[in-house]
Design brief:
The protein is mainly alpha-helical and 97 residues long. Helices cover 87% and strands 0% of the residues.
C-alpha cells in the first residue's frame, strides 16, 4: 500500500508472495522424508496428499473471502488483533520461562 496499491491488490500480492515460500518449504520437507528411508517408511503419503488437497481448498476459500472483505473494510481491526496477539504472546512467553 506504501507504493500506491489499493487494499485488495496489496492483499492479493501479499498472498501471492507466500506461494513460492510455502511451495519451497513443502518440497524441502518431502525431499527430506524421501532421503531418510526410515522416516519415509513410516510416512503415510496418502494422508500427506489428502492434507495437501484439503489445505489448498481451504486456503483458496479463505483468501477469496479475505479479498472480498478487504474491499469494504479497513485493516484497523487486523492491526488491533495483531497488537493484542503480540501482547498476549509476550505475556505468555514471560510465564513460560
Amino acid at each position: 500500500m506504501a507504493l500506491g496499491l489499493n487494499r485488495p491488490a496489496a492483499t492479493a500480492f501479499s498472498f501471492l508472495l507466500g506461494i513460492p515460500t510455502l511451495f519451497a518449504a513443502s518440497g524441502y520437507e518431502i525431499y527430506r522424508e524421501l532421503t531418510h528411508p526410515a522416516a519415509a517408511a513410516t510416512t503415510s503419503w496418502g494422508m500427506v496428499a489428502l492434507g495437501t488437497v484439503v489445505s489448498t481448498l481451504v486456503a483458496f476459500a479463505v483468501v477469496r473471502w479475505i479479498l472480498r472483505w478487504v474491499q469494504t473494510h479497513t485493516f484497523v481491526p487486523f492491526g488491533w488483533y495483531r497488537i493484542a496477539l503480540g501482547l498476549f504472546m509476550l505475556l505468555l512467553g514471560d510465564r513460560l520461562r
